Amino acid sequence: MADFSFIHAADLHIDSPLLGLDRYEGAPTDEIRGASRVAFKNLVDLALAERVAFVVLAGDVFDGEWRDYNTGVFLNRELGRLAQAGMRVFLVQGNHDAESVMTRSLRLPPNAHVFSHAAPETVELAEHGVALHGQSFGEQRVTTNLAAAYPEALPGRFNLGVLHTAIEGRQGHARYAPCNLADLTNKRYDYWALGHVHRREVVAESPWVVFPGNIQGRHIRETGPKGCSLVTVAGGAVASVRHVPLDVVRWASVTEDVSALDRPEDVVDRLAEVVEREASRADGRLLAVRLRAVGVTSSGAMLAEPHRWRAELISRVTTLVGHKAWVEKVLFDAAPPRENAGADARENLAVLERILADLAASPVASVPDFVGKLSAKLGADAPQGDDSPFSPEAMARAKAEAIELLRFRLRLRRARGAGA
């Protein structure tokens, strides 16, 4: 059996609409929405440069139904580049591009093979001594254990399983084609090429069970380098599994302690330096970053006027890194030091606390319960944490901003009264 290499990628989500970007002022929407295409071009470039034997795509090549046929034309054009180099592509359909989801379609080039959704299928590559086993999703919600029906390993072959699945213990992902690690290792394959989980994970090394993650982060919950696994096989066994970044937009979420800073201007400068540092780590990619300022600081005006200081930060970031970074969101979670407020201030704050308590007890308070139920149905795509206006974190922040705004205005009123 000759030595060879192959690429394992998954969750391409080509032409994902990335809904919600338009609500962010100044967001580089075109660049972010086009990133999935560029990332896939990078994958094809890597395959050609490394002269791999074949490419494996473990589901969710698309994000769902195409808006038009241009999505299919793009995929076929890139697969055609691989065909010209004599490289084959093997793919399974996942929950986003299942047989039941796609109503539009184009014939794939002859070098591309889609595994059947009716039953597990085996394809042998005699020239490499490889047996690939896979099964596509026939419908979006596959809740049966597909791996259980996969065939046993073929003797004398490098056996490679391709599966779109949520292995037990992977939080935040719908339990599609659920299985456990033993279901996979008992087949005695040499490598399991998995998809569905967007964070890269080497689940096991004997045999190799790998989630490569998606090739391009789509939002702030998909941070860090995104790409594929380049697998080298020598002497009929896996010799190396190397993660190769393919992304063109790098997402980052950074928390910075600003306790030692007393002026809002100093906080802005510190956060801008953080963005500059993260941009330098993105290796020339566009950085999309969320910042969170924490700690105890007397620069409470940031909580009282978050929009103003976000604008100050964006101006400072532009000065330092130009258009290499986009500040997706700034969260001022730094708490003001406790102070001995005067009688009037204490009374006003007490009134505000009662108003907030009354609001929490009103029928509006049922909204978070509704959002929670909706989130459970949407799974990983549902707004969570700081992305949901009804999350405990977001509601606590709104309360803190309201209290600090009141404090800020009470200080202004006292200052004006003292100067009268």
Number of strands: 15
Count of all domains: 2
Structural class: alpha/beta
What is the strand arrangement across the widest sheet?
4-3-2-1-11-12
Gyration radius, in Å: 26 Å
- Find the CATH superfamily of the largest domain: Metallo-dependent phosphatases
Determine the strand fraction and express it as a percent band.
15-25%
Number of helices: 10
User: How is the CATH topology of the largest domain named?
Assistant: Purple Acid Phosphatase, chain A, domain 2
Globally, the shape reads elongated
Major pleated sheet:
6 strands, mixed
Mean pLDDT: 84
Q: Summary?
A:
The protein has 420 residues and is α/β, with parallel strands linked by helices. The chain contains ten helices and 15 strands.
What's the arrangement of secondary structure elements?
Layout (H helix, E strand, L loop, with lengths): L3 E6 L19 H5 L1 H16 L3 E5 L11 H15 L3 E5 L19 E3 L6 E5 L4 E5 L23 E7 L16 H5 L5 E5 L5 E5 L2 E4 L15 E8 L2 E9 L3 E9 L6 H18 L4 E9 L6 H4 L1 H16 L3 E8 L10 H18 L6 H12 L13 H28 L1
Parallel strand pairs: 1-2, 2-3, 3-4, 6-7, 7-8, 8-10, 13-14, 14-15
Antiparallel strand pairs: 1-11, 5-6, 9-10, 11-12
Helix pairs in contact: 2-3, 5-7, 8-10
